[in-house]
């Protein structure tokens, strides 16, 4: 079962509990609030202050002291506007007031119209900069929680595979480690088992990402999904703007190596990092999927479909068969394939799609499943499937989007596509 945040029927009082506690004067809650969100505030200021970084930390301390403590900003949060947007406007207004105060004190030497500060004078001109820093905070916090959980539960291999296979390639622009190397390095039984461990890590990231967002939006799924969509839109908008200079983003809470803001294409990388938590993000590279599919197609039937139920039924049926194809590749190329064998292979591949730890990638099992169906349709039989033409066409559209499918299977899928009624 997929992990999910608490349901929307929980009391709304729990949705904003931290902010409510800060508003009520709870000092422990304030410390938690500052520890949690100060890195995002700091990274935003680094990017917008430009030539005025020397007093950045002092400015942050003033914001905490004046806005959070003295003026009780938490009690003023407009929940219709949303926490993230409210905090952005509050922080930006605070910075503007800071410069205006300095301008008066220093006799007009600082102006919001000069090249360093003119962007501050425009409403929402740098909202995407704040959103970029905020998305970086959300992802880094979720990743830290995944790592902490893996280390606490002695699941080091799960974190190491996630880092080697997905996180470091995305963050540091290095090639992903192969599953074969990860299998040997971390003592898995097979490359597929290593891939299953990566899927476990992705589920953890999905859960912690939802939890981090729920802490400031509310715990119902609709609020979480809305915020994720808002962050994606903000990152897409930020990606269309000229890249800002790479900031110094080190802080006490996170190390610079864990941030995505240290690159000129931070918006793109943050978007891809969010995609790591998606249900349908691929575990296998195209070349890897192609190689596994070739092995399945060329191996002996009993080796390719190595499953007790399949082997028992296959051997029983094979006794009365005149001749049998040596492998799946031959089976799918036959004009009149044995329908009983197509049914057996289809049933086996379907069991893999339902399995939590299949012996081959589910994408490959999906290809084999529909190869059985299409081979039966080409032979003039619809007995191998109950799916409607519309459902089959939708599945074939997805299959034909896989760049790694063998040319013979691609032809089979295209021929079947042309036979079906749209």
Overview of this protein structure:
There is one protein chain. The protein is mostly helical and 422 residues long. It has two domains: 12-242 and 263-275, no CATH class; 286-419, no CATH class. 63% of the residues lie in helices and 0% in strands. The protein contains 18 helices and no strands. The protein has helices spanning 17-23, 27-49, 56-70, 83-105, 127-152, 156-172, 179-186, 191-217, 221-238, 266-275, 286-298, 301-304, 308-318, 328-333, 339-354, 362-378, 389-400, 407-419. The longest helix is centred in the middle third of the chain and has 27 residues, at 191-217. The model is unreliable at 1-15, 109-116 and 243-257 (pLDDT under 50).
Number of domains: 2
Query: What's the SSE pattern?
Result: HHHHHHHHHHHHHHHHHH
The end-to-end span amounts to: 34 Å
Radius of gyration, whole Å: 28 Å
The overall strand count is 0
Helical content, roughly?
55-70%
Number of helices: 18
Net shape: elongated
Largest sheet: none
Strand content: under 5%
Structural class computed from helices and strand pairing: mainly alpha
Question: What is the mean predicted local confidence, pLDDT?
Answer: 81
Poorly predicted sequence stretches spanning 5 or more consecutive residues:
1-15, 109-116, 243-257
Structure summarized in a few sentences:
With 422 residues, this protein is mainly alpha-helical. 63% of the residues lie in helices and 0% in strands.
């Amino acid at each position: 079962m997929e992990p999910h945040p608490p349901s929307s029927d929980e009391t709304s009082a729990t949705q904003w509990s931290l902010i409510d506690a800060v508003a009520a004067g709870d000092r422990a809650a304030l410390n938690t609030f500052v520890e949690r969100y100060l890195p995002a505030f700091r990274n935003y200021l680094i990017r917008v202050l430009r030539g005025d970084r020397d007093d950045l930390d002092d400015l942050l301390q003033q914001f905490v002291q004046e806005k959070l403590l003295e003026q009780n900003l938490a009690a003023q949060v407009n929940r219709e506007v949303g926490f993230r947007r409210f905090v952005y406007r509050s922080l930006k207004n605070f910075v503007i007031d800071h410069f205006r105060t300095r301008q008066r004190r220093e006799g007009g030497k600082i102006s919001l119209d000069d090249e360093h500060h003119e962007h501050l004078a425009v409403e929402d001109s740098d909202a995407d900069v704040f959103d970029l820093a905020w998305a970086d905070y959300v992802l880094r916090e979720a990743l830290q929680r995944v790592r902490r959980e893996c280390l606490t539960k002695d699941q080091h291999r799960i974190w190491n595979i996630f880092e080697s296979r997905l996180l470091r390639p995305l963050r540091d622009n290095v090639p992903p480690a192969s599953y074969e190397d990860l299998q040997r390095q971390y003592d898995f039984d097979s490359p597929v088992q290593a891939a299953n461990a990566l899927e476990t890590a992705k589920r953890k990231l999905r859960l912690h990402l939802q939890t981090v967002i729920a802490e400031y939006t509310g715990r119902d799924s609709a609020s979480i999904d809305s915020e994720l969509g808002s962050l994606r839109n903000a990152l897409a908008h930020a990606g269309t703007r000229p890249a800002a200079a790479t900031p110094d983003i080190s802080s006490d809470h996170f190390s610079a190596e864990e941030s995505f803001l240290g690159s000129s294409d931070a918006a793109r990388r943050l978007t891809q990092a969010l995609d790591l938590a998606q249900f349908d993000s691929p575990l296998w590279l195209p070349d890897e999927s192609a190689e596994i599919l070739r092995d399945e197609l060329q191996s002996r039937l009993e080796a390719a479909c190595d499953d007790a139920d399949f082997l028992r039924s296959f051997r029983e049926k094979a006794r009365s068969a005149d001749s049998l194809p040596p492998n799946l590749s031959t089976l799918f190329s036959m004009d009149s394939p044995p329908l009983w064998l197509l049914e057996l292979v289809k049933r086996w591949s379907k069991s893999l799609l339902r399995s939590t730890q299949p012996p081959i990638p589910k994408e490959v099992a999906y290809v084999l499943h529909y190869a059985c169906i299409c081979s039966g349709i080409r032979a003039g039989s619809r007995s191998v499937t109950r799916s409607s033409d519309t459902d089959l066409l939708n599945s074939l559209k997805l299959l034909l989007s896989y760049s790694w499918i063998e040319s013979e299977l691609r032809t089979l899928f295209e021929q079947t596509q042309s036979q079906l009624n749209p």
